[in-house]
5-formyltetrahydrofolate cyclo-ligase
Amino acid sequence: MTTKRELRKKYKELRKALSPEAIETKSLEIANRLLQVAIWNHTYYHLFLPITEQNEVDTEFVLQILAGKDKETIISKSDFETGKMVHYLLTDSTKIQKNEYNIPEPVDGIEVPSSKIDVVFVPLLAFDTNGHRVGYGKGFYDRFLSECKKDVIKVGLSFFEAENAIADVFESDIALDYCITPDKIYRF
């Protein structure tokens, strides 16, 4: 079993090696696979905007799906003082600005409580066959997901396949319901 720290290092390296073309192709494959998952009968979808400098999954294609299906898209702003996220409805007039960590965030807008969100697309560096994920280690998503309703659907997006198991999973870690890769749909 591998630790979160080891996995962070490994997957940051693997992502760094991806070309812009590979990121675009794999991100499109992930979005196409998402269409096969039965999660589209809800209203409020929380989406992360990618940190391009970290070679994250480009969620532009998912954004297009949400717009095409006339769903409400919610994006967040992270507060590094409190470790919490504030969620805003994404509208045509939403102004997006990168924070000091290069995370694209809404400047302000219509706030949406966590309890309203039906589906959360979760960024991650790695995940295992039990649905546990490894993020950057700040705990933003575990805190956010713990504020959501019990039946919120958690969908990880990953360029890479699952690890067998993560050694140091905590009780406060919230597992995914699905993880979508370019080649596979994992259900947990």
User: Anything to note?
Assistant: The radius of gyration is 15 Å.
